[in-house]
Amino acid sequence: MPNCFRPDVLLTYNEINEAYITKAPEIIMEVISKSTAKRDEVHKFKIYEEEKVKYYVIVYPNDLKAKVYRLDGKEYTKEGDFSLETYDFEETTCKASINFANVFERFRK
């Protein structure tokens, strides 16, 4: 069975049809839960890397942090752990950034 994923969030600048995308997204974000942790951290990580997704962001809402990985050639390198910072995605077709303080604001209350 082929890999068929439905990421929590993705950003693509390619044309899409109604059923699926035909090229790798530039950014994928997955929100970790106890039931998805292993799949998101291991299996999807490897597949997204192989499919050349430029950025993979793993969000840990219970820990109020996100790990950002950037594709460097054929493999991901960790850009860092973020909780209050803004991260600028430099290697995308259009500039994009995420303010993680805003992402986690509702979880801090």
From TrEMBL:
CDD domains: DUF820-like (cd06260). Pfam families: Uma2. Gene3D superfamilies: tt1808, chain A. Residues 6-79 form the Putative restriction endonuclease domain. InterPro entries: Nuclease_put_TT1808 (IPR012296), Restrct_endonuc-II-like (IPR011335), Uma2 (IPR008538). It comes from the Bacteria. This is Putative restriction endonuclease domain-containing protein. It comes from uncultured Sulfurovum sp.
